[in-house]
Amino acid sequence: MEKYRVLLVNDDGYQSEGLKAIRERLLEEGYNVVTVTPDRNMSGSSHSLTFTRPLKIEKLEENFYYIVDGTPADCVHLGYHVILEGRAPDILVAGINTGPNLGNDIFYSGTVGAAREGTMLGIPSVAFSPASSKNPDFYGMSKMAVKIIRQILHKGLPDKVFLNVTFPNIPVEKVRGFLLTRQGRSAYREEIKKYISPSKEVYYWIGGEEALEEECEKGTDYTAVKEGFVSITPIRLDLTDYRGIEIMEKFGFLELK
C-alpha cells in the first residue's frame, strides 16, 4: 500500500479517546500520521482562527504528534503551513469527536470547522463523530472510518466539498451499511443554567441535552444513524442559497424605497 500522509486533528484535545483510537488505527494500517490537536477541549469553537494573540506549538511525542494552544482550525493552519511546511497531506481527518455533530451542530462544531479549513486549503477532508456521547465504541468506529478514508484517497471528493460522517452508536457488526445523507435539524434541547458564586456573582452555562427522539425526515443524517446506518453528508464551502436568490428576485426584494 502506498504510504499516504494524513493530517489528523480534533476539537476535544490531545487526551481524547476518539483521537487515540483513529490515530492508532491509521498507524496500524501503515499511514504516515501527523497529529496536531488543541491542548484542551475546544468543542463549539466552530471555524474560528486566533488573531488576538500568538500561538505556541509543542511537540508531544517524537513521532509527529503536536499540540497547539488554539482552536481546531488553528491546528489545521499551523499543521499545514508550519509543521508540514506547506506540503499538502493526502487527506485531513478531523475526529473522532467525543459527541455527535448532526444537523445544525455543523455550524458550531470545531471538528467540522477543522474539515472545512482543510478543504479551504485544498486538502480532501473528512470529519468523524458518533451519534451519541454515551459509551461510544471508538475502536469499532475507527475500523469503519478507515474504509471511508480509503474511498476518499482512491476516488476523491467533489471540488470544494468535504464529508461530515456520523456513526450509529451500536456494535460494528450490527451496522446496516453506509448512506449518503443531507443535513438534518438540531440535535439538542437547548438549556442555559444560572449559577451564583460564593461572592454572589451571577454566571451562566450554555448547554443542551442530546435528543434524537424528534421526528426524523427521510434522507437526513438523523434518520440514517437512528436506523443503524453510517451517515455520510457532503458539505459545500459555498453556502449560497441559489433558490433563495431566485425567490427574492421574483418578489422584487431589491425594489427598495
What does this molecule look like?
With 257 residues, the protein is of the alpha/beta class. It has one domain (5-183, 215-239): 3-Layer(aba) Sandwich (Stationary-phase Survival Protein Sure Homolog, Chain: A), CATH 3.40.1210. It is built from six helices and eleven strands. The chain has a nine-stranded mixed beta sheet, sandwiched between helices. Strand 5, helix 3 (110-120) and strand 6 form a beta-alpha-beta unit. Helix 1 (17-28) crosses helix 4 and helix 2 (72-83) packs parallel to helix 3. The protein is globular and about 65 Å long.
Task: Map the helices and strands.
Blueprint: E1 5-9, H1 17-28, E2 32-38, E3 57-61, E4 65-68, H2 72-83, E5 91-94, H3 110-120, E6 125-130, H4 138-155, E7 161-167, E8 177-180, E9 188-196, E10 202-210, H5 221-226, E11 229-236, H6 242-250
Parallel strand pairs: 1-2, 1-5, 2-4, 5-6, 6-7, 8-11
Antiparallel strand pairs: 3-4, 7-11, 9-10
Helix pairs in contact: 1-4, 2-3
Order of helices and strands: EHEEEHEHEHEEEEHEH
- Give the overall form: globular
Low-confidence runs: none
Q: What is the CATH superfamily?
A: Survival protein SurE-like phosphatase/nucleotidase
Radius of gyration: 19 Å
Structural class: alpha/beta
For the secondary structure, the number of strands is: 11
Number of domains: 1
Architecture per CATH nomenclature, i.e. the level-2 architecture: 3-Layer(aba) Sandwich
Measured by DSSP, the beta-strand proportion falls in 25-35%
**Spatial ordering of strands, largest sheet:** 3-4-2-1-5-6-7-11-8
**Tell me about the biggest sheet?**
9 strands, mixed
Pfam families: SurE
Catalytic activity: a ribonucleoside 5'-phosphate + H2O = a ribonucleoside + phosphate
Function: Nucleotidase that shows phosphatase activity on nucleoside 5'-monophosphates.
Cofactor: a divalent metal cation
